[in-house]
Design goal:
Blueprint: E1 19-23, E2 28-32, E3 38-42, H1 53-71, E4 76-82, H2 87-96, H3 100-117, E5 125-128, H4 133-145, E6 149-152, E7 155-158, H5 174-183, E8 199-204, E9 219-221, H6 223-235, E10 239-245, H7 249-264, E11 269-275, E12 278-280, E13 283-284, H8 295-299, H9 305-313, E14 321-322, H10 325-343, H11 351-362, H12 367-383, H13 395-407
Parallel strand pairs: 3-4, 3-10, 4-5, 10-11, 12-14
Antiparallel strand pairs: 1-2, 6-7, 7-8, 8-9, 12-13
Helix pairs in contact: 4-6, 6-7, 9-10, 10-12, 11-12, 11-13
């Protein structure tokens, strides 16, 4: 599967500091000093609807990590999946009477356009669930050899008790795990399971659903093992960061980590990093609540994509917050002020701005602090407008490069 086009990223005059990110498993900031290329896996979309601002906030957040690593001198190997066959997609296709493949292709293409407009750096490997089915089958076979797989009717399950570290990613107690598992696509009450928390690896063929041949009979992959197999195929063992929204901590990232731990005897990722949730009208954005704000709708309403990105960057990637139209229009006004300052050419000294912005982003991707630094530079620069004595004749060019390279804002 192809990703989207990559924007040109300017080379900054200084190297950024080492990056630290929040690890959900330990609840602390951890230094991310990659050995060779930095390796990042971010869970992708299930393409049954358009990209809403909650999705965009997550991918813009991890785009900051990609850029911070690059600024620190590390090449980045970035992998993202597309769950282009799963229950929500099939249910949506039935409801709107459209072929599920056509629906997945249409919404994936719209996602590509949204990410390109927001200047999110594309993954090196963009992998669909359907094309990864051979990888998933091989991974299930590998797990079967460990004795951690069992059958219930036509379905195969992973036994979480096979992993002594199960629960380490989320840190949740069992009661909370069972409740979340039921809310987020699990089947804790199914008869025949050894443990309510055991998850599906291979879903046997159902009437009217797509299926693929396998050594275990026709069917399709479970959700969690899809990401496990893709990540380890393209990033190897114990890669640097697994990322996604905070609603993926359990069960998705917990299950993926356990499957990998049982299969390899090693941790899945060095850090598990999660973005917060975006609300609208008082509730988390979700299809079921119908309170979605779509990136494509804003773009097609002549909203500058850089204003959308700036509005997202004003919130720390780990925070939960609520989108308002007022924030968007304030971002539009801010960009107009910044562009005015950049048009002057000369301005307040730029190198302290470069160093402070890179330092803020290296400390758990603190975009709000970085934006405050830029705001101060803009105020100082506009305060010198019309004065002959400005301290940095190349300030605007340097700050322009910084905004693009570090924050993904092309002005």
């Amino acid at each position: 599967m192809r990703a989207w086009s990559a924007p040109d990223v300017p080379v900054l005059p200084v190297e950024g500091p080492p990056v630290r990110v929040h690890d959900s498993a330990t609840g602390s900031l951890v230094s991310s000093v990659p050995e060779g290329a930095a390796r990042l896996y971010v869970c992708g979309i299930t393409p049954y609807d358009a990209t809403h601002l909650g999705h965009a906030a997550t991918y813009v957040g991890f785009d900051l990590l990609n850029r911070a690593w690059r600024a620190a001198g590390h090449p980045v190997s970035y992998v993202q999946n597309v769950t282009d066959v799963d229950d929500p997609l099939l249910e949506r296709a039935r409801k709107v009477d459209i072929d599920w493949v056509a629906l997945a292709e249409r919404e994936t293409e719209l996602f590509r356009q949204d990410m390109e407009a927001l200047r999110v750096l594309p993954p090196e490997h963009y992998i669909g669930a359907v094309e990864s089915i051979p990888l998933v089958i091989d991974y299930i076979e590998r797990l079967r050899r460990t004795g951690s797989v069992y059958q219930v009717e036509d379905d195969l399950y992973f036994s979480v008790s096979a992993d002594p570290a199960f629960g380490a990613v989320s840190g949740l107690d069992r009661e909370r795990m069972v409740a979340l598992f039921a809310e987020r696509g699990g089947d804790p009450e199914r008869e025949g399971k050894k443990d309510p928390l055991d998850c599906v690896l291979w879903r046997g063929e159902r009437p009217g659903e797509p299926s693929w041949e396998s050594p275990f009979g026709p069917g399709r992959p479970g959700w969690h093992v899809e990401c496990t197999a893709i990540a380890q195929q393209f990033l190897g063992r114990h890669f640097d960061v697994q990322g996604g929204g905070s609603d993926l901590v359990f069960p998705h990232h917990e299950m993926s980590a356990s499957e990998a731990h049982v299969a390899t005897g090693e941790p899945f990722a060095r850090a598990y990093t999660h973005a917060g949730m975006v609300a609208y009208d008082g509730e988390k954005m979700s299809k079921s609540r119908g309170n979605l704000v779509f990136v494509s709708q804003l773009r097609h309403s002549d909203v500058d994509p850089m204003a959308i990105r700036l509005a997202l960057l004003r919130h720390h990637y780990r925070s939960d917050w609520e989108w308002t139209d007022a924030e968007l229009w304030d971002a539009v006004d801010t960009l107009a002020r910044w562009r005015r300052a950049l048009s002057l050419g000369a301005g307040a000294p730029a190198m302290p701005v470069v160093q402070s912005v890179l330092a803020a982003l290296a400390e758990d991707l603190d975009a709000p602090r970085a934006l405050q630094v830029v705001d101060r530079w803009v105020a100082e620069t506009l305060g010198t407008e019309g004065l002959a004595d400005t301290s940095d004749p190349a300030a605007a060019a340097t700050v322009h490069q910084l905004l693009d390279a570090a924050l993904g804002l092309s002005l």
